[in-house]
Amino acid sequence: MSAAWRDLATPRADLLLRGGRLIDPANNRDGIADVAIHNGRVIAIGIAAQELAPRRTIDVSEAIVTPGFIDMHVDVYEWVTDFGGRRTLRASNRAPQPSSTRAVRALGHSVDSKPSSPRLSCEDRNMDFDQLTNYASFIKDDPFRRALHFPAVEEALGDLNKKRILDIGCGDGLFSRLLAERGAAVVGYDRARQKIAEAQARVAAPGLEFTFVVATPHTFSHDGTFDAATSVMVLHYATSPEELAVFFRSASRHLGPGGQFISVVINPLFSAFGEDFVVRRFARLEGNIMRTEFLDRTSGRVEMTMEAAQYTSEEFERAAISGGMKPVAWKKLFATPDAVQQMGASFWQPCHEHQPYSLFVAQRE
């Protein structure tokens, strides 16, 4: 490959990686070079990369840019891996990409090999969120959670006073507490023991009713019934449509007649991969797997990367029916007026136009 290379079919880059050490064994290359990326693939290298008017530029002058590192490790679990289903041994053996004309697979590893951001892979969707130490701190102030996801669920729930809510995949209890502050009595469960411990450790304001337990859809059990169940960005980590149905079956078993399961999920129709969502970037991988990069709003730095399934609406609806529930509605998500005023319409425009998330409502019959 020459010092300057460009795909002439693409006029503009989404991202320019500037000044990094580019190591590309397949093309016998090792040196400092800029790399331009569009829609998840490299479109220019070297001087040609600077001519593509990139939408965003990241200085990677102290980093290595490479088509991929092989991540080989083994995780051993005894009997059950909870959300991921029953497995006793699982090995990651993702193969590297052979060509530098594919998307950069590993970025930000400095010369001393310290990784820049945690990653939850499609193979590791059953892994504990305790391993992502910065996830809770990112989500706590995330505008997508605070002004897009949470308000949509609250609106669907209606008046929360004295309602009994089951919060599935509650993490450290952020949303559960918000619901309790609105007057609900909440039980939240999650398989991440450390997150549940953090939720239990926080001092509650007088009068708030919430309980947190370590459980999975397979193991959760409660004596009473709930008026509604919620999950926010949880269901797409189910490792199969059959596992997805377990969430609905568990929710249905704990809901009263007519009780609704209200979930924020990856929009089955979303296709705007490569678009700039300011604090998110999405890419399509193999099959139904999509990658989400969580970005720092100021610097554009990737804080963490996750991979999950983009299930179809038919798969969600079949899972609900299999779990003893009736699909009721799919709803688009829009930021609250206060958030639009505070952050500006331009921040929210990509979300409103491309709708990366949806609200799915199912009801116990």
Main traits of this protein?
365 residues, alpha/beta, Urease, subunit C, domain 1, Rossmann fold, 2 domains, seven-stranded mixed beta sheet, 20 strands
Explained architecture:
This protein has helices spanning 135-140, 143-157, 174-181, 193-201, 241-254, 313-322, 337-343, 345-354; strands at residues 5-6, 15-24, 29-38, 41-45, 56-59, 63-66, 73-76, 89-92, 106-110, 119-120, 164-168, 185-190, 209-214, 226-232, 255-266, 280-284, 289-295, 302-309, 325-332, 357-364. The chain is of the alpha/beta class. The strands form four sheets. Strands 1, 2, 3, 4, 5, 6 and 9 form a seven-stranded mixed beta sheet that branches. The chain is elongated and about 65 Å long.
Mean pLDDT: 82
Proportion of β residues? 25-35%
Q: Which oligomerization state do the chains in this entry correspond to?
A: single chain
Radius of gyration: 22 Å
User: With helices defined by DSSP (H or I, 4 residues minimum), what is the helix count?
Assistant: 8
Helix content: 10-25%
CATH-defined superfamily of the largest domain: Vaccinia Virus protein VP39
- CATH class descriptor of the largest domain: Alpha Beta
Counting helices, strands and paired strands, the structural category is alpha/beta
Going by CATH, the architecture of the largest domain would be: 3-Layer(aba) Sandwich
CATH topology of the largest domain: Rossmann fold
Give a count of the beta strands, DSSP E runs of length 2 or more.
20
Ranges where pLDDT stays below 50 over 5 or more residues in a row are: 76-116, 119-127
Count the domains.
Answer: 2
The biggest sheet, with number of strands, parallel, antiparallel or mixed sense and barrel status, is: 7 strands, mixed
Q: Which descriptor suits the 3D outline?
A: elongated
Determine the N-to-C terminus distance.
62 Å
